[in-house]
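User: Fold this, then the next.

Assistant: Folding the first:
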Amino acid sequence: MPRQRVRTPNAPGDAVAATVPGLATLTGSEQALLSCLQQAPDGVVVIDADARILAFNQTAEALWGLSQAQVLGRSLGELVPDEARAPFLARCMRQRSDTPGDGYELQLPGNDGVQRWVSVSAATVPQQPAPLYVVFVRDISAERERDAKMRMLSLALDRSDNAIVVCDPQLAILYVNAGFVHMFGYTAEEVRGRLPSSVLPGVGTDMQAVRLTRERVVGGLGHQTDLLVYRKDGSPLWTTLMANPIADADGGIQHYVVSFTDITQSKMHEILHKNVLDALVREQPLVDVATLICSEVERIAPQVVASIISVDGDGRLHPLASPSLPTAFNEAVECMRVGPTAGACGAAIWRGKQVLVRDAATDPLFAEYRPLVQQLGLGSCVASPIKSSGGRVLGSFALYYRDVCEPQPWHLRLIELCLHLCALALEREQTKARVHQLAFYDSLTGLPNRVMFSARAEQALAAAEYHAFPVAILFVDIDRFKRVNETQGHAAGDGMLRDIARRLGETLSATDLIGRQAGDEFVLMLPQCGAEQAAGVAERLLLALADPLVVGHVTLHPGASIGVAMFPDDGRDIETLLRHADLAMYRAKNEGGGSFRFFSADMNRMAQERVALETALREALRRDQLQLHYQPQLHSQPPYALYGVEALLRWQHPHLGDISPARFVPMAEECGLIDELGHWVLRQACRQMADWRLRGVPVPRVAVNLSASNFADAQLPARVAKKLSAHGLVPSDLALEMTESVMLSNAPAVLANLRQLQASGVRLSLDDFGTGYSSLSHLHQLPVNELKLDMSFVRDLEHSETARALTTSVLRIGESLRLHTVAEGVETEAQRAFLSWLGCDVLQGFLFSPALPATQLERWIGAHQADPEAAAPPATSGAAPH
């Protein structure tokens, strides 16, 4: 119950002066001053030379949770912790009368159990025969919390790798964090007061994007964009800019916060790798791919001009792409023969290594092309040979600068990325003539056949090896396809294969490879895909393939088995990977089909364990290796009679040991075993209840948890009735527990099932009430007999006012709807006493008994009948527990 505050009936100026020595002789003005102190916003305590309390104003009462009457005459030291008493009194009783004593902070335990930080200062009041001391106490808990948050925020900002800028309403810079200084090279003093748009843009910055950002944030909207900006040293930097206005309580904009994230590396990979590989997979012409590479490079690095040149078998050059150079460049290069002085590109191809020209106007490599260099305005150049996976030079990739300069390090990394992409493009073009002579596509499905898939896969594997990316190979085999051909004919089988090919293509991304291997076998390659991602893709494929399929007048229900092999762990060439994926597929098929398996047990241990656990659960269901334990539910009032028991599922695996329901029940939901699990629990609970009835064990009823899918089964009422009848039970012997998700189910069968079950006499219980989707509009329509208060509320009853309030609300709801309320998870006497005092009908938890096997429960019931209060201690008094 809440503590009642005691207040003095008279003003302290009268009561204190009349009763405390030393204040009785106060003048009228002094009495008025004392009355004013009583109303002061800070706590005011007046003490004598012995530290005895002479006055204690209302704020002090609130801080300590004590009334003035409770503290007058006591030592002030008694109101603070022992360890703080000596320094506290020393501060309060300084012999100074001119100014209050220096501020002193300490943590003050209030009588209400709340710890407060307070600031204490004191002043001396000279008088005879001994001075008085006035102690001022101010609650600074909120200030300390705010200061701590500000320190934490400041630390977080300065530790962030992102550059963060705070601007005033005129967009002038007020603050930059350490990340800004590190990213851009400016000190805070150099940029304070300036506009970000006057500091960071450069020659390649998209000023239209800058203007759009400014317009949106000034208009009160947040904005995000990718923007090229420049460091203090002039080097470019690709960033993701996020700008947001910060408004005050009245809606007026007070500040703007702008953050910059360095995406230079990811921009190179995102733009080049993804787009170029996508163009290659889509069989774009070589010139288009080369132009795409050059254009994207120039967009990433606006200060360079890119060109790609191929070389034929006779050593002659052929420009493929140079979108920013005039036609004079292509005309001069076309059919030029490679050699040690054939410009930077010709020399790089001839030497087979990178060539750096710091000044094209003076370098001997351009001696024969001075007029062209002057015409094009070229300064420096970096030309690199494009080599095949076998080391053969296929052409050159060059970056030209308008000015004489040293290539920046990130430009050299950009060149490395482009060389690999150029090699893929050129190699593909050189093998295209041979590849097109083969039957590249499967005539039935339109997918690449084995030859085309392998060729593309080898190219992708070369790219993956260069960048150390993982690749997943999936081997997909259709389950029971032979039976479809045999029973429905080859036309139906062909239709099924066409639809499956379409579903596979719709499930994968543009960069993934897919092919038909043979018959009902398909193969897939997922670039830049780790084992965990591959498992997710395999699960999505299984779901996509499992949808019913109409072929002609027949509805087919396809399924598949999938094997997964990972590059490079399971093989470095496509043939090895396909063979290993095929072996993994057969393992999935031999274990029942409709699933996937990884070839490498070491690399995919977690996936293998999940598959093994699912298999073990199926086996446990098939062999009745699960058990039910039963937890008693007791009436909360004397004589604490047994209300019923709840059946709880347990699994003791012979090799894996105890497996928690929290682990295998969600897995059962995911793999489609939850309905079978619910039927097993219901069957076993009814069997045990029938045995108890036969032997006279006084168990009033057994409660069984069922899943949402169980309640959506239109046959559930008939199943329940059949099981009760088969075991000679009546409906009132059984209670079915549902979660709140059942309450909100849109399945039409759910509400009809619940009404039919309740009408038959089966009790219905709403489990974990208040933790999920509680809705009174649904609850009053739902045919339930009891509510189960979730254990999370019960657990917090002793220390959470919110939990106590919510618990009270749930109990009042149950009371108003005439529903029994069962509180689960009762573990302490304090919890039991509080729930009993509130009128909760039924209690369940470790305070009384854990879930027990049937034989142990029977012994517990016998002991409880002999001494009911041993299992449920009696409540103390009728007063509310604290």
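Now the next one, as you asked:
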Amino acid sequence: MENDVQKEPSNLFKLFFGTSGINADLQQKINDLVPSIIYIYDVNNKKLNYVNKRITDILGYGFEEINTWDDHLAGLVFVDDKELVKKELERVAALNDNETHTYNSRLNHKKGDWRYFRTTGSVLRRGKDSTPESYLFIAEDITHTLESEAEVRAADELISETEELLQFGTWSQDAVNNKLYWSAGLYKLFGYTPPQNKEEISLDFYLKHVLISEVDALKQKITSSIEHKTDFEHIYTITTGANHEKIVSTKGKAVKDENDTLIKFIGTTRDVTEQINAYRQLYKYKQITLERERFLESGSWEVDVQTGKITWSEGMYRLFGYEPPEDIAASSLTLDFLALHQSPEEAKHGKEKWAKSVKESNNFIHEHSITTTDNKIKRLETYGKILRGIDGKAEKVIGITKDITQLKDYERQLERRLAELERSNKELEEFAYIASHDLQEPLRKISTFGSRIKAEGDMGDDNKAYLTRMLVAAENMKVLINNLLEFSRVTQRLNDFENTDISKILEDVKTELELEIEETGTVINAGSLPWLEVIPLQIKQLFSNLILNAIKFRKQGTPAIIGVDSILLTDQEKTFYNLQVDWDYYKINITDNGIGFEQEYAEKIFKIFQRLHGKAEYPGTGVGLAICRKITDNHFGKLFATGLPGQGSTFTVILPVKIK
């Protein structure tokens, strides 16, 4: 082989360098420095007349080893490529002088595998009949190049498949010449078959697919991005080559050089039709739900039992006085958060109800009060459904909450109207009884005693006594009739309400009752009393009756000591007394140290003509406290009493600060 190497070094060198002015050793060194395998193939002898040392470096074969083969070239070519190389040699043989032909094939490596080569060949020498006698080949190892190309192709295929699967495509636009290039995925997105080679797309071709009504907005977005060298994003509608409408989202990123000069835009366009349509449907559903919640003053919610976190609808935010979702972070919504809007008693009761429902039932209803962010009191009704896992443990609770404040107000008004009607009916019944019985009694006495006087003729001592008793009975009848008239006149007149100092009314009452107070040694201790919107004459009558009642029912030989104080009702007390939660109320207590009464008669004493004691012992008609009750009803308030025999009594008057 060493001898073969020397056969045509000068001719080979001439082929590359065009001169033979360099000695053979230098020529050989230069040939061995070339990174490719250089070899000359003798067609007739099927031998390599020359091969440089790169064959050993690249394929591992020595020259002596190759010399033992019958066909040197056939021994080098990978078995699966022998037919390919045979045809390529025929193409080389057909070349004219100074022409070359290039092909790819695999050559065997000594270790048993193979490597890819890009081989360029030409005819080196011809015989007398111009038939090629030897070929010159230069084989460049392209194994790594082909592997890289294969990886690139695989990556391109993966990108193409990903684009098709996710319905998007990529693009680039040169900022200088406005050339636009699409990926295969973008062609498919627009309804076209991708071309074999990368082709330029005109901007007009692209824009003609955009819905006419949306073209200007897209152009404006692109122009602004180019002018300011900024990224952009835009959602718009296109019509594909197959005349299908799609909603797409395009994102573009500005690429600039080190001088901040815009080079190009690169970006993606993806089909978001399903997402946008789903979003629109969801938005429409949310708007309908929101309108329904606003109309019904309600909200929906969901609680994760394990974490205690709550998810609210917008209606729930508004029930509590928040504007969703800026005012409060969703992560803050927990059962403890709800307690911030409730009184301690309400919060405790709510947690107990919650724990019991989650443990024992599948559904629950809970009525409770809250204070909104603007300090309004609302009465809410909550319906909940517990969702349990296969193990029976509660996982989630879903439900709705409604504002029933107005409904409760209506209920209270209805109850008040019904109570008034019931009282009115009873009063009519009692009045009819009195008219047929009690009022008849003095009239009978007048008639009887008058008859006796008439029969006697002469006015003796007995006649004088009869006449006296007639006059007393007549006076009693007069008082009774006057009280009944007074009771009937105590009606509600809204136009008579005015903001009044209750302390001033009490002072007026004390002045009017000065004689009774002085004669009985009564002491009245009054604390600070509020200003209230009331009918002054009726409230004055209320205090007068209650103080006279305390004086009348004092203990024998003991001066009456009367205390008057007031306090603002709490939200819990308003709920307890079934009052309107959004009104403010004062509770005024009038206490005495009198004879008291059994608590079982606490309601009886407010009924007209009802008495716990005889007339001889405690004179009166039994109308005064009934008038007091009617006055508090007229003021949308309450009146009730508590007492203990021998220890005194307390009359509690509850009145609103302002009639709304």
